């Protein structure tokens, strides 16, 4: 596109570009907490997603360029706002339940449906590849790290054996005479894999390659990126061995990796060029006439209404989260159980679950089914990413000390589970469940659903409730007594009352 023609196009499409930029800016502000979580990942240099800002800028550039090259006038679609509302609900669920990846994935989809609603389906379909390119900047690819790390270790082990270097491989650690070299998670090559595939996707979009050639470019990018990373790690192992672990690369090799990746781009670009040369579009692009403009009259009123409707729908989910957010205070809760017996806070206990991030711990001592027991409640008045009831690092006890005994059938069909734990040689029998807004479950997925629903009532708390029995030997006798007295267990859990002393629902 010549400079004069480009200037003319910008002037004729200025109102569309400004509107689109405004909607993007509004979406960033409305969903700022989630964008900020992406920033936190993108800002970590030399990590797997440090290319995030670069991809975001490239996608934004190609989006605006697509607007300039689009010959038809905008055709707002009111049907697309339903997609915005649905995706806003998905984002709301992700934010309310600390399922951050779900909220992050909703962001580019929300932007795409906003474009669909303002500019029409035809233009929205044409920029779908940009949506897919942006996914390379979202931290959902970490699942590949163990696989790539294992393959890298295997390749390096094979290379070391060829040279006859004395080395002992223990998992991801390589023991050489001068020390130990570890193939860390950052050495798996995920960052090079993502960068190479993002570049392949951008190249394919720019040159309008068909699906077959786009996949071929992705395969070439993957192969070159992985081989380049294998060579990088292999060289570092050789340097460590022959320098007796004294070379500076043993302590800092990030720049070395990117230099090697830059060299790998040369053959990658050459192969991409060969793939492009075989494409039908490349062979006919020079002779293809410029499509005529098909500008149609668009009512300013219709366009303004569509933009305002999009902004309103974008604001619904953040406003709902903000309106229903509760500032919990530990001091504003009172916990009681059977016959109104209050649970004490900050009491010393011999054992407690290996949960983290809870705001308060309550306990109560008393007889249940003729056995001395202790009721413990780990209360979460507020939850945030990493400070939540359902979290991968939250365990009743380490796996080697815990024996799950299945569901416990109380009279009221209350979802409870039974387990035995060995702590310091003391056997304990546990009856436990999650309590979210007064409803019990032992399923992590159900707990997340209940956590989302609790957003809309005045009981936003979450808690782990555990009834603990100290065993004389292996808990067989205690288990038999408890199984014979389900009604007494049911009473303890059903009469547990976690009560907010004062309303605390307010705007943050």
UniProtKB/TrEMBL annotation:
Keywords: Cell membrane, Hydrolase, Membrane, Protease, Transmembrane, Transmembrane helix
Membrane topology: Multi-pass membrane protein
Biological processes per GO annotation: proteolysis
Keyword Membrane (UniProt): yes
Name of the protein: Methanolan biosynthesis EpsI domain-containing protein
Pfam families: DUF3485 (PF11984), Exosortase_EpsH (PF09721)
Methanolan biosynthesis EpsI domain segment(s): 333-468
Organism from which the protein derives: Saccharophagus degradans (strain 2-40 / ATCC 43961 / DSM 17024)
Membrane-spanning segments: 12-32, 52-70, 77-93, 105-138, 150-169, 181-203, 215-242, 254-273, 303-323
Highest taxon of source: Bacteria
Location(s), subcellular: Cell membrane
GO cellular component: plasma membrane
Main location: membrane
GO molecular function: peptidase activity
Native organism taxonomy: Bacteria, Pseudomonadati, Pseudomonadota, Gammaproteobacteria, Cellvibrionales
NCBIfam families given in the database record: 8TM_EpsH, exo_archaeo
